[in-house]
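User: Please fill in residues for this 382-position structure.
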């Protein structure tokens, strides 16, 4: 009912603005897509302190899937109004949606209303060299194949790697991933695309009546992306900046990111840098970077990717100790019988997680982990 009401509101607004030619029907379209992947991996972990590290050793069978629905109506004047609904295939038993938003698209660009990444994250290129959709995009594959854990009260607990510097260059301000908001993406002009987004607070559709988050409010960001070609060399670059407000007088949460890549004759090389600063107590402050190189030859794609992230240890906020993660992966993938959307892949990598100090504070050793991951996977997209 909530989304139906918004659809009616959008259609009414379009009519008032003169976008809709009254009495004439638009073209209705329903498209869908998605992906599914499965990995068989072996992980060997070493830990210098604590107990339970052996829980990360051994064979892992991993899978993931998403389905995207894109219903839309194309008006007689060419403006397109629709929705983007992304459903998770792997969940805890409940039907879960990832990005869900309404959009209005035309020669003016695209306006999005709903849950999704910030404009800066949406427009980021990242670094090449990773199987499938990337080992460090939102920390998905690293967290699944190699458990990134820290010690708390003598027990290993999973670290947050999504949207924060420890696990990705795809940062969301204050680690607040996929908020409900308003986003704008411009048309391309001379290779440049501009984007901006605004989120009132950290609320979701489950709590629509709250006027503002009690601790944080008014998040906004802007981004600029370029894509062009010079003498047969394709160049892509992007930059983004975001800021938010908080009730903590000592906090001023900000994010910054930059990425650059070039492609020529089947070769791709690039890198990305991201930084979070000014979060409350420094809880999410830190920086990360990744660099990668990729070679495409016929049905084969070979890649090498290195990631490094470092941020404040949330167990010792205000005292300065940090936690860090580095990982280097070599990947190889091949189209299955010439089908670009069906791929087999293999990967081998080394990952290290490090704490400056232990759970008890200064003078105690950090709970450090390191290990090797090898695996095989298959991925289809449609």
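Assistant: Residues filled in for all 382 positions:
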């Amino acid at each position: 009912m909530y989304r139906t009401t918004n659809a009616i509101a959008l259609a009414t607004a379009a009519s008032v603005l003169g976008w809709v030619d009254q009495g004439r029907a638009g073209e209705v379209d329903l498209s869908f897509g998605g992906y599914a992947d499965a990995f068989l991996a072996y992980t060997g972990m070493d830990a210098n302190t604590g107990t339970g590290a052996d829980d990360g050793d051994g064979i892992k069978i991993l899978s993931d899937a998403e389905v995207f629905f894109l219903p839309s109506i194309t008006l007689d004047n060419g403006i397109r109004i629709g929705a983007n609904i992304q459903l998770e295939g792997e969940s805890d038993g409940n039907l879960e949606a990832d990005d869900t938003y309404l959009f209005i698209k035309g020669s003016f660009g695209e306006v999005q209303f709903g849950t999704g990444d910030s404009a800066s994250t949406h427009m980021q290129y990242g670094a090449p060299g990773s199987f499938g959709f990337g080992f460090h995009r939102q920390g998905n594959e690293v967290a699944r194949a190699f458990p990134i854990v820290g010690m708390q009260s003598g027990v290993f607990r999973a670290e947050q790697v999504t949207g924060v510097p420890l696990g990705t260059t795809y940062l969301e301000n204050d680690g607040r991933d996929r908020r409900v908001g308003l986003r704008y993406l411009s048309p391309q002009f001379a290779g440049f695309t501009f984007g901006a987004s605004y989120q009132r607070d950290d609320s979701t559709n489950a709590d629509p009546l709250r006027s503002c988050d009690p601790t944080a409010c008014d998040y906004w960001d802007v981004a600029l992306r370029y894509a062009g070609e010079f003498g047969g060399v394709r160049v892509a670059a992007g930059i983004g900046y975001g800021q938010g407000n908080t009730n903590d007088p000592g906090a001023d949460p900000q994010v910054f990111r930059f990425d650059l890549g070039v492609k020529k004759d089947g070769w791709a090389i690039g890198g990305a840098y991201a930084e979070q600063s000014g979060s409350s107590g420094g809880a999410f402050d830190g920086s990360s970077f990744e660099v990668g190189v990729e070679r495409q030859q016929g049905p084969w794609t070979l890649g090498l990717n290195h990631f490094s992230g470092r941020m404040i240890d949330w167990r010792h906020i205000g005292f300065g100790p940090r936690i860090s993660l580095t990982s280097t992966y070599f990947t190889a993938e091949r189209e299955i019988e010439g089908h670009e959307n069906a791929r087999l892949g293999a990967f081998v990598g080394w990952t290290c997680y490090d704490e400056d100090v232990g759970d008890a504070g200064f003078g105690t050793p950090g709970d450090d982990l390191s290990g090797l991951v090898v695996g095989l996977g298959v991925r289809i997209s449609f």
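For context: The two ends are 30 Å apart (CA to CA).
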